Amino acid sequence: MADRDVVPPADINLELRSTLALVLAGGRGSRLMNLTDEEAKPAVPFGGKFRIIDFPLSNCINSGIRRVAVLTQYKAHNLIQHVQRGWGFLRAEINEFIELWPAQQQTRDESWYRGTADAVYQNLTMMARHQPKYVLILAGDHVYRQDYSRMLAHHIESGADVTVGCVEVPRAEATAFGVVGVDGHDRITSFLEKPADPPGIPDDPERAFASMGIYLFSYDFLVQELTRDADDAASARDFGKNILPYLVTAGAHLQAHRFSASSISSPGQSEPYWRDVGTLDAYWAANIDLTSVTPDLDLYDSRWPIWTYQVQRPSAKFVFDNDDRRGMAVDSVVSAGCVVSGSTVRRSLLSNNVRVNSYCTVSDTVVLPDCNIGRRSRISRAVLGSGCQIPAGLVVGEDAEADARRFHRTEGGITLITQSMLDALD
C-alpha cells in the first residue's frame, strides 16, 4: 500500500467519541500458576484494593474514551461481578458504556476464542452496532497509566492503518517480548515474536521496542483484515503472531507509538511505568515496589486516579503495644479492613480484610484479600492467595526445600501459597 499523506490534527474530543475500546480479558494467565485457578488474570487483585483490569479501564475513562467493551471467557464470574459493581456509572442515554461481552461461540464453527484476533472477530456484529471510527484494542492484564487520547492523535496525524503501542526496553530484555522493528520515522518494518537478536531503535540502538499489546485500528481496515484472517486456515487467529506480521509484509502503514509520548508519569519519575505482571516473580515485585518510599507507580497521584470497586470496610487497625507483642507495620501498604494484632509487618502489602494474629512476623510478602494468618507464623518472600487460612506456627521463606515441597516456589525464590495447597497439608 502506498504511503498516505499525514492527516491534519483533528478535534480530538470528537474523535474520542468515535472510538470504541475493547479490553481483552478472557485469558487465564497460566504463568501466575495457582493464583488463577479460580479467576482470570485481569481479575487478580493488585496493589491492595484494585484488580489488574482497573488499570486499562481507568486509562480509558481518564483519557475520555467512554465506550468500552470487556471481552471475557475463562472463569469470568469474579471479573464480571467486579465490572458490574464498580464500572456501571456511565450513562447509556448519551452513548457511554462499559459493557461485558462474554464469549458466545458466535461463528459458524461455534468455537471459543482461539486467539486475540479471533476474540475481536467473533464480536464484529456487536462492534458494528456502535459504528466506531476507530477501535482501540487493549490487553486486560497489564499495569500502567496511559493517556490514550495522545495515541489516537498520533494515529490520526500519521495516517496509519494501525498504530501499535511500544515500550522501550534494553535489547537484552526484549527477547521475552514481541519486538517491533522501525525505520527512522517509527514506521514499523518488522514484527518479531521473542527474537534472539532484537532490532534496536534507530535513535537508541541499545534499546528495542517491545509491543505492549495495545493496537489502534481504523475500524474499516480492522474489519477487512479480521475477515481475511478468518479465511486463512493456517492462522492462529492472533494479532501478534498473524495479523501484524502479515500487514507488514503486505505493505500496510503500521506506526509505532512510543509509550513515553503518552504515559502518565509522576514528578521525578525517570522511566515510564509499564509492567507485564504475568509471572509470579513480576507480580510479587510490582506489588512490593508499592511499599517503597518512592514507588515506580505512584497510586497517590490524584491527577490520574485508578478507579475500582471495593466493599466498604472499616479502617486498618493495629493493636497491642507490649515489648513481645506489638502491632506494627513498617514500609508497608495496609488496606481497609485489616487488623494487625500484636505482630510485625515489614515491607509487605496487605490487601483488604487481612488479619495478622499475635506474635507473627510478615516480611516482603504480598497478602491478597480475606487472609487470616495464624499466631506465631513467620512468613517472608511469599504471595498468599485470596482467602488463605494460614495455620498457627507456619514458617515460610526460611527453608527453600521445605517451601518447594509444600507449596509452589519460583526461580526467583518467591513462595506462592493458596488455600488448596494448605488443605493438601492436612
Helix and strand topology:
Layout (H helix, E strand, L loop, with lengths): L11 H6 L1 E6 L20 E2 L3 E2 L2 H10 L3 E6 L4 H10 L10 E6 L13 H6 L2 H7 L3 E6 L2 E3 L3 H11 L3 E9 L7 E5 L5 E6 L13 E12 H12 L8 H12 L3 E5 L15 E3 L3 H10 L27 E3 L1 E2 L2 E2 L1 E3 L2 E2 L4 E3 L2 E3 L2 E2 L4 E2 L4 E7 L4 E2 L4 E7 L4 E2 L4 E2 L3 H7 L1 E2 L5 E3 L1 H7 L1
Q: What would the keywords be for this entry?
A:
426 residues, alpha/beta, Spore Coat Polysaccharide Biosynthesis Protein SpsA, Chain A, UDP N-Acetylglucosamine Acyltransferase, domain 1, 2 domains, nine-stranded mixed sheet, 11 helices, disordered N terminus
Description:
With 426 residues, the chain is an alpha/beta fold. It folds into 2 domains: 12-290, Spore Coat Polysaccharide Biosynthesis Protein SpsA, Chain A, CATH 3.90.550; 317-423, UDP N-Acetylglucosamine Acyltransferase, domain 1 (3 Solenoid). Helices cover 23% and strands 28% of the residues. It has 11 helices and 29 strands. The protein has helices at residues 12-17, 54-63, 77-86, 116-121, 124-130, 148-158, 219-230, 239-250, 280-289, 400-406, 419-425, and strands spanning 19-24, 45-46, 50-51, 67-72, 97-102, 134-139, 142-144, 162-170, 178-182, 188-193, 207-218, 254-258, 274-276, 317-319, 321-322, 325-326, 328-330, 333-334, 339-341, 344-346, 349-350, 355-356, 361-367, 372-373, 378-384, 389-390, 395-396, 408-409, 415-417. Strands 1, 4, 5, 6, 8, 9, 10, 11 and 12 form a 9-stranded mixed β-sheet that branches. Strands 17, 18, 20, 21, 23, 25, 27, 28 and 29 form a 9-stranded mixed β-sheet that branches. Helix 3 (77-86) links the parallel strand 4 and strand 5 (97-102). The longest helix is centred in the middle third of the chain and has 12 residues, at 219-230. The protein is globular and about 70 Å long. 45% of the residues are buried. Pathway: Glycan biosynthesis; glycogen biosynthesis. Involved in the biosynthesis of ADP-glucose, a building block required for the elongation reactions to produce glycogen. Catalyzes the reaction between ATP and alpha-D-glucose 1-phosphate (G1P) to produce pyrophosphate and ADP-Glc. InterPro entries: ADP-Glc_PPase (IPR011831), ADP_Glu_pyroP_CS (IPR005836), GlgC_bac (IPR023049), GlmU/GlgC-like_hexapep (IPR056818), NTP_transferase_dom (IPR005835), Nucleotide-diphossugar_trans (IPR029044), Trimer_LpxA-like_sf (IPR011004). This is Glucose-1-phosphate adenylyltransferase. Its EC number is 2.7.7.27.
